[in-house]
Design brief:
The chain has 240 residues and is an alpha/beta fold. Helices cover 35% and strands 18% of the residues. The chain has helices spanning 18-27, 50-57, 77-83, 92-95, 108-119, 138-142, 169-177, 193-200, 209-212, 217-232; strands at 5-8, 32-38, 63-69, 87-91, 123-128, 148-152, 182-186, 204-207. Strands 1-8-7-6-5-4-3-2 form an 8-stranded parallel sheet. Helix 8 (193-200) links the parallel strand 7 and strand 8 (204-207). The site of ribulose-5-phosphate has 23 residues, from strand 2, strand 3, strand 8 and helix 9. Its EC number is 5.1.3.1.
Length: 240
């Protein structure tokens, strides 16, 4: 099993001191920075866009793990690439109604979006809302079109929600077939809920309130590494 990647969500950081918050959390042991982009349409909340990513890039060399909770994500691929994003994760539901998708045939619009992300020089991720089946991603994963799957363990839109334990079963479905895939869980992840996520096969943990809201964020991240190591039965390791 791969090493754990911890990607604190800056949604729970102090936006007025974002560059300092990013620097601090990386120095305390974060591997990536998770950047939640919301458009007030795909989800009922508004956050930030490519200009903020571009500004942050001047202050940080960290891996920018951008989660686009927006309608028409293709519209922003070039802007995010130019701004310095490393991972561009779009929602499957933002491209096609999942009712029109099958687990045996790739939909051209999803293929095209993933290809556009990679052509722009970023890694391609696809996010699933809690009600969307993991099996719908099999055609794209079998073709090697995706670098990461983000499994939402809350309804997207807000930090600080309760972890939906049943959603992590999707990680197990994917892990069984794709041992090397980056499988990210996002929503209500704490040192405690990380156990179920790790046991199901997730290897990228997003946590906003549990890390930025903690008095000792380094300690929380260390507890997450211990939970992961116990689940994976391997020593905790910080990815290079
Ligand atoms: O994508 C998100 C919300 O849509 C956030 O990344 C997520 O909810 C993290 O926040 P928390 O750890 O506080 O649940």
């Amino acid at each position: 099993m791969s090493s754990l990647i911890i990607s604190p969500s800056i949604l729970s950081a102090d936006f007025a001191t974002l560059a300092d918050e990013c620097k601090r959390i990386v120095e305390l042991g974060a591997d990536w920075l998770h950047i939640d982009v919301m458009d007030g349409h795909f989800v009922p909340n508004l956050t930030i866009g490519a200009p903020v990513v571009q500004s942050l890039r001047k202050h940080s060399k960290a891996f920018f793990d951008c989660h686009l909770m927006v309608t028409n994500p293709q519209q922003w691929i070039k802007d995010f690439a130019k701004a310095g994003a490393d991972m561009f994760t779009f929602h499957l539901e933002a491209i096609v109604d999942p009712q029109q998708l099958s687990s045996s045939q790739a939909h051209p619009a999803v293929v095209e979006a993933a290809q556009q992300v990679r052509a722009a020089g970023m890694k391609a991720g696809v996010a699933l809302k809690p009600d969307t089946l993991a099996e719908l991603l099999l055609p794209y994963l079998q073709q090697g079109l995706l670098d990461m799957v983000l499994v939402l363990t809350v309804q997207p839109g807000f930090g600080g929600q309760m972890f939906m334990a049943e959603a992590v079963q999707k990680c197990a479905v994917l892990r069984q077939q794709f041992p090397q895939l980056l499988i990210e869980v996002d929503g209500g992840i704490t040192a405690e809920t990380a156990v179920a996520a790790a046991e199901a096969g997730a290897n990228v943990f997003v946590a906003g309130s549990a890390i930025f809201g903690a008095a000792e964020p380094a300690q929380v991240m260390q507890q997450m590494r211990q939970a992961y190591a116990a689940a994976a039965r391997q020593p905790a390791a910080v990815p290079a």
